[in-house]
## 1
Amino acid sequence: MDKTTLNAICPYFTMFPLEVPYRQLQKAVPNTWVLDPFCGRGTTNYAARLLGLPSVGIDSSPIATAIAEGKLAKTNPNAVYKVCEEILRSNKNITWPEGDFWSICFHEETFKNLLKIRESLLKDCKTPERKALRALMLGILHGPKNKGLPSYLSNQMPRTYAAKPDYAVKFWTQRNLYPDYVDVLELVSRKARHFFTEQPPAVDYHMICGDSRELDFSYFGVKFSKVVTSPPYYGMRTYVPDQWLRFWFIGGPSSVTYNHPSQMTHSSPSMFSSQLAGIWRNISKACESDAKMVVRFGGIHDRKANPKEIMVNSFREADCGLRVNTIRSAGLASEGKRQAEQFQRPLRKPIEEFDFYVSFRRK
Ligand SMILES: C[S@@+](CC[C@H](N)C(=O)[O-])C[C@H]1O[C@@H](n2cnc3c(N)ncnc32)[C@H](O)[C@@H]1O
């Protein structure tokens, strides 16, 4: 356990390793403001925190920002445990979602406590310990069953994404897989000690759930010197549907929803470049004149589009003095592969990712 442990509180699709933003920010002078306009689970913001730098994170998925906020909250294991214990002690009426999925996904007693916590956090999630508890709960909500002490609340599931309800029910019933009773408070207590014992000092931050295409980045009243980010890979539209169970926990519907208009549109590579161009242009207005940006970007299997072309076109179209200094291969993306194996999704060939090193030169 060290100060980087908290970064892994909850998995996320296409997250990049902590070393990626950490390396880019390592030499930044104190008080440098860092920006990630597609922050996902806040890896860039957490790297900034480790280095004592203030940061802004934006993501249009509320799941992403809920995880990221939990990693920036200054709290301690005891405070997280206490707020959970208080919630579970309360004698509230809870509303149970209906359908086979819910009765096979969680043991009844475990589910009752899970619902209590969900409803309480939906009413109030303002304090650091509540934000921390929310991120922790998102991390333990679903995952594989293990032999010793349980790590997750659900029946057998991947931890990176949630299986769709009908598929999951079929999978469990065909294999006679039933949910075990999990003592929620014990698991929260154990995980809170694991994740929140060693924390980096608190830093200033803004974490916004919003659409970066529509944001005025000057709103924060700071000038950014470092932008480290990874937009959705072209064709990757499933951030919210694949995380539907976590979405439900933070207030989404109890079924899978596919229409999320605040996510980037993937109708053609040129349209995708144009959306990115608009974001880069707006960011450049809120940047120092010598600001630097690193963008990690790749492709996905079922779209025949050239990620390098999409990205370079977006810089050109932004027409705001961006200069691409280097493009480096970041190797093959294999995250998610092991997860997929557990739930028997067909495996696919890993894809290549690139890092684009860019300077802002204000016109
Ligand atoms: C590749 S992931 C970022 C992962 C992040 N680097 C991490 O380590 O967790 C891309 C993110 O872009 C977000 N996104 C998609 N469209 C967006 C938009 N219009 N505005 C802001 N975020 C958006 C997705 O929700 C997703 O979290």
## 2
Amino acid sequence: MNITIPGARVVDVRTSLPRHKTLRYGRRKLTDIRSAAMHHSATVSGSPEAFARYHVGTNGWPGIAYHFVIQKDGVIYWCNDPEAISYHVGNSNRHALGICLVGDFRTQQPTAAQLESANRLIQYLQAQIPSMTQVFGHQEYPGYSWKNCPAFPMGTFRTNYSQFLQKAVGKVDKPKQVPVAIKLNGALLSATGFLQDGVSMLPVRAVANAAGGKVEWIEQTKDVRVNGRDLTEKVVSGSAYAPARELAAVLALQVEWDGSTNTVGLRGEV
Ligand SMILES: [Zn+2]
């Protein structure tokens, strides 16, 4: 897995950070992740290396606590696989993914670059990990009301994040997308697809379900398969879309295009 986030620099330090000689973090499925947990480093400056040295050397943990660390300049350091059950929110570790912003926000403010990168990172992760529907501050997890972390107001953070998402959808997806209706053996489906660069992209799950195809989500590669075959899908708001011709082929359906009504007609035995 490789992370590419438009507008943000991501540095993969998973294999270079100090880690424990023998101890390793437990593993989970991506679908176990329910929330992103926001932290501050509680140090005016710092680096993933310094935090890892402290967590391993002083605390005796398997590795750095966080999955991602965001520096003041907005650079995102990828520190642990999302599947690692690292130590950052006690009893909630199994279901939380840790994101730490460098700084002590009791006396400092997160930088605009940090907040922008945090928004981009969470948006990216939520598309890859649809079960991660929530964003909480460390302090909001059970048993941590005493802890002043991340020491910035989470209500404001979440409001800014939803505004960021709305803007991102408006900017990136909406202007390019022309809706496409889908008919299966003449009957209109309730789901719609969209046109992208002249290609009709159809919702994989809705079409496969209607046509009796088998849909699988491959965790390791973040791929969708239909009837055991790979698709060049695109994930939009947590749903996978695939080119109509590809999807029709794996479902053994004929496909025709009606450009006057922007409708994809699928035909075959279902
Ligand atoms: Zn914390």
## 3
Amino acid sequence: MQPTQNTIAIPATTDPDVAQTLRDTALYLNRHGWNQGEYYDARNGLFTPPACLVGAIGMVCYGGPVDAPALNYDDPGFGAFEAAVRYLNAFLRLRHGLAMDAYAFNDTRGRTLDEVLAVLDTAAGFDLRAHVPWHCGRFMQPDIDVQVDCLALPEAERFVSAWHVCPECGYTATVEVTDPAARKLAVDGYRDLAEIAVHDDPKHTPGTSDACEACDLYCYCTAESACINHVEDDTDTAGTAMGGAE
Ligand SMILES: [Zn+2]
Ligand SMILES: [Zn+2]
Ligand SMILES: [Zn+2]
């Protein structure tokens, strides 16, 4: 079944409790230490052990180490834990692409504590709801499908949008990508897709065949030439036929 396409407005607020949890998490890591690969470094038996990013959110929300912070449903702090992790995951996906989440960010080779603290600080002060749609009480997840109107336009004038899907109910929406880092990521990803798109026979330069699906789907404009989607229609001599190519 084809999902309905919608564009929805997002309330411009950041949950103050989530922001506080993220700031407290940075404080915890600063004070007690940070580690990779596991929730806690239990070697020295401390009640406030060094922790990974998600482990430290657990320390803040539960008040002590628990075996599996993400599965600690019965704890009164679970709601705060889950809200903070979901928010952070949505923020990291926006900034670093679909494959990123709090675990992957923490465990990336070469990651430093300073980078983790910087992400917590930026995320806590970021208005994520202005960038990622909200549905069924949580952030929608970005889908792979990114639209860019014309690559020949200056960066700031391009309209860049991304599909999002509600993980609870399957509702879909397209939203304009406005965060500069996320825009760069989206346009780079779009260029990569255009690059590897398979063009129909007969052989042609990408962006030049109006019978080719890939040419129709992507913009191949360069500084020197316009692609078939954006070429100026100067065919006045052909009469005034209405309703040409969309
Ligand atoms: Zn939903
Ligand atoms: Zn083509
Ligand atoms: Zn074009």
